[in-house]
Amino acid sequence: MTDRVRTVRDPDPAQARSLVEEGIERDAVVTLFGRCTVEYDGRAASTLGPGDRLVVLKPDGTALVHTDEGQQPVNWQPPGCTHEPAVEDGQFVIFSERTTPEEFLTVRFEHVDHAGALDGSDPSALDLTGTEADLKERILADPDLVESGFEPRATERDTPAGAVDIYGEDADGNAVVVELKRRRVGPDAVGQLTRYVDALERDLHAEVTVRGILVAPSVTDRARKLLAERGLEFVSLTPDPGTALSE
Amino acid sequence: MTDRVRTVRDPDPAQARSLVEEGIERDAVVTLFGRCTVEYDGRAASTLGPGDRLVVLKPDGTALVHTDEGQQPVNWQPPGCTHEPAVEDGQFVIFSERTTPEEFLTVRFEHVDHAGALDGSDPSALDLTGTEADLKERILADPDLVESGFEPRATERDTPAGAVDIYGEDADGNAVVVELKRRRVGPDAVGQLTRYVDALERDLHAEVTVRGILVAPSVTDRARKLLAERGLEFVSLTPDPGTALSE
DNA sequence: GTCTTCATGTCGGAT
DNA sequence: ATCCGACGTGAAGAC
To answer: For labeling, which of A135, B103, B136, B245 is most exposed (least CB within 10 Å)?
Structure first.
């Protein structure tokens, strides 16, 4: 069951380099654990002094440097990078590089405690529910959830300000812009809705009233005031019919 | 140099459970590689069919499930969760749980190819430059970069719409709101600046002219038009003096 | 705890 | 390639 995994304990720099090089060659997920320093230069720049970290190299060109804390890596490179393992000044080093924008990551190991090349395959795709797309489906299946008599006319309708989540008409024939959010919203979402409503009013030559409705589970105080100031409306709705939050 | 690392190849479920339990007990970073399925339920919900993945458990309660692609984990739990290794129906399983909000993650292994408990310490902090804070410092050190005669009066000045990055006065005594962005900005930043300017105009009782200036390396077309519509201004500046982008 | 905003955000989709 | 907005965004700071 396993020649899918090759690991080394306390490899010397040459051994580490060899395992990583072969791992990359074989499209394996490569893991390293040991004392290292990290330098990054690109969109921003950073340095990180010595410490024990877990480094992961993926066959798609991703690099991750994880400390013992936090969900996010302390340093990283996105997919599409080229990783170059090397021995320099007697140390095992990984150089990682990308272009557009140019970014460089260097991980320099004082000591490698453990190195692994993990070979596998992953045919499955994630199935996720409770997203904004689900909220949209929910409304299209029952537009009255927004307002009695609401009739969707288009989704992703283009305006000079961008695409509107749901565009439609109310019972009186007014244009309605609906902006969807899967979770509680703040002022930013009001800004978005404002831009769409303004753009549509311009587009429709002021012959039609354009209403803006923000649909989300709930809204912060500041956002509610902003909505009021700008004559926009709010409807409480979650992506999941089972979850009914108080407004 | 190494009783800091304990690893097992092809552990049976009981061995995997034992190593993970001891690893958690010792505040180690635990890694697992093998064929597994993943279920998540919480703010949203997801299922993931069988595939080979790398699972990382951190002593702070973080869990990460990484496939062979992408910078982001396919599933995860944030810091503060409790991880419970178990053997169920002859399979090694990790249950992870958090509260506020309640979220559950279950990783069920068909086979574990490799398991490791990695013990280390990390005393170093990341030193990062090229951030919005650096851009702010740059301007405070030389306010003329925004405009000749500009005089900062406060940073993070509070308004009913939130805190303004830099608040000051121009050579004519007009109030100036400066919104900083470390990189090229889109319509969202204009919305932000708009909210601050509107709030300040209200606050200052329309006795003073309030100018809004967006400072960033560059701006998208749509954002530029929005700025023009709303009588706001743009100044091109990067966080790093060395990097001078064309507007 | 909630609220607000920054981020080397990342990611996907459309142009 | 850039632009735009969603994300189980995460993380930090203020209140």
So the answer is: B245
Nearest residue (CA) to C1' of C2: A220
Query: What proportion of chain A, given as a percentage, has pLDDT over 70?
Result: 97
User: Cβ–Cβ of B7/A43 closer than 8 Å?
Assistant: no
Q: Retrieve residue A111's tokens.
A: 């000591």
Least confident of A80-89, A185-194, B1-10, B56-65: B1-10
Q: Please, what is the average pLDDT of chain A?
A: 95
pLDDT exceeds cutoff 80 at A98 = yes
Q: Please count the residues of chain B.
A: 247
State the DSSP H helix or E strand holding residue A105, giving kind and residue range, or none if neither. Answer: strand A103-118
- Judge whether residue B192 contacts strand C, using its CB and a 7 Å cut-off: yes
- Greatest Cα pair distance in chain B: 77
Residue B117 to residue B22: CA distance in whole angstroms: 8
Does residue A79 belong to the interface with chain B, where contact is any CB pair within 8 Å?
yes
| Rounded Cα distance, A93 and A158, in Å | 49
pLDDT confidence bin for A241, thresholds 50/70/90: confident
The CA-CA-CA angle for residues B218, B220, B226, to 5°, reads 110
pLDDT of B1-60, one tens digit each?
A: 557 999 999 999 999 999 999 999 999 999 999 999 999 999 999 999 999 999 999 999
Judge if the upstream peptide bond of residue B101 is cis by omega within 30 degrees of 0: yes
Domains in chain A (CATH in brackets) are 5-118 (2.70.180.20), 132-236 (3.40.1350.10)
Which regions of chain B does DSSP assign to beta strands (E)? Answer: 5-9, 29-41, 45-57, 63-66, 75-77, 82-88, 91-98, 103-118, 126-129, 151-159, 162-169, 175-180, 210-216, 233-236
